[in-house]
């Protein structure tokens, strides 16, 4: 499949790598200079497009005319929605997947806005983290890819490598994506400037050694 990933942050980078490893043709669109620099060290130059995904010329440069899927995973709901509308109704992309960052905006992610599939991190967290789970220990909730990758839940202790660090500063997260954080009664959709605190309940997608981050 030919896939366009819009957003080259932590989530977008992980998705792009996984898709390429699965044999797909992937192009990543990113407009932030810092993220572009990192992407260009990870992927071939022709797989990374610099620009704003709401600009049709940028989308065409990324190959949207014959794309099978576009995944909109930026941290800005408004950008994901505008791009989804252009992708679906101007270029007829068969499958448009949109990331919902703010749960209050979830109602906007509909077929009328060009979204075929919406992914809400907050809802994923709410549906998985339930009172019956023992939050004092790391829990493996789902194993993926024949056991090499997992969705795990863990409580951050004062000894954890993640404690009191901003997500953007944690180099060990190369093979781990923080999906959501539960802090008291608050559900947090993590971004680069999110500070992970002691006693946070973290939901993460990680590789086989990812559990060491929570030790």
Task: Describe this protein's structure.
With 215 residues, this protein is α/β, with parallel strands linked by helices. It has 5 helices and 13 strands. It has helices at residues 10-21, 33-42, 56-61, 77-89, 121-128, and strands at residues 2-6, 25-30, 48-50, 69-72, 95-100, 117-120, 139-144, 149-155, 165-166, 176-183, 186-188, 195-196, 201-206. The strands form 3 sheets. Strands 3-2-1-4-5-6 form a 6-stranded parallel β-sheet, with helices on both faces. A 5-stranded antiparallel β-sheet has the order 7-8-13-10-11. The chain has a two-stranded antiparallel sheet with strand order 9-12. Strand 1, helix 1 and strand 2 form a beta-alpha-beta unit. The longest helix is centred in the middle third of the chain and has 13 residues, at 77-89. The radius of gyration is 17 Å and the shape is globular. The model is unreliable at 129-138 (pLDDT under 50). It holds the Pfam family TrkA_N. One of its GO terms (biological process) is monoatomic ion transmembrane transport.
Number of domains: 2
**How many extended strands?**
13
* CATH architect. name of the largest domain: 3-Layer(aba) Sandwich
How much helix, percentage-wise, in residues? Answer: 10-25%
CATH topology type of the largest domain? Rossmann fold
Tally of contiguous helical segments? 5
CATH class of the largest domain: Alpha Beta
Secondary-structure topology with pairs:
Elements: E1 2-6, H1 10-21, E2 25-30, H2 33-42, E3 48-50, H3 56-61, E4 69-72, H4 77-89, E5 95-100, E6 117-120, H5 121-128, E7 139-144, E8 149-155, E9 165-166, E10 176-183, E11 186-188, E12 195-196, E13 201-206
Parallel strand pairs: 1-2, 1-4, 2-3, 4-5, 5-6
Antiparallel strand pairs: 7-8, 8-13, 9-12, 10-11, 10-13
């Amino acid at each position: 499949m030919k896939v366009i990933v819009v957003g080259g942050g932590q989530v977008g980078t992980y998705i792009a790598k996984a898709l390429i490893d699965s044999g797909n043709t992937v192009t990543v669109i990113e407009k932030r200079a810092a993220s572009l620099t990192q992407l260009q060290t990870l992927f071939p130059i022709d797989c990374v497009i610099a620009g704003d995904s709401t600009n049709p010329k940028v989308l065409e440069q990324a190959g949207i005319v014959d794309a099978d899927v576009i995944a909109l995973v930026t941290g800005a709901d408004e950008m994901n929605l505008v791009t989804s509308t252009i992708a679906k109704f101007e270029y007829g992309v068969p499958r448009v997947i949109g990331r919902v960052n703010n749960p209050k905006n979830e109602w906007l992610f509909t077929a009328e806005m060009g979204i075929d599939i919406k992914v809400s991190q907050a809802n994923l967290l709410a549906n998985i983290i339930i009172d019956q789970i023992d939050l004092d220990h790391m829990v493996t909730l789902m194993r993926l890819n024949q056991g090499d990758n997992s969705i795990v839940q863990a409580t951050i202790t004062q000894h954890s490598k993640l404690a009191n660090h901003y997500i953007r500063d944690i180099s060990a997260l190369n093979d781990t994506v923080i999906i959501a954080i539960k802090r008291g009664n608050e559900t947090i959709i993590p971004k680069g400037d999110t500070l992970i605190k002691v006693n946070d309940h973290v939901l993460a997608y990680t590789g086989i050694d990812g559990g060491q981050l929570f030790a």
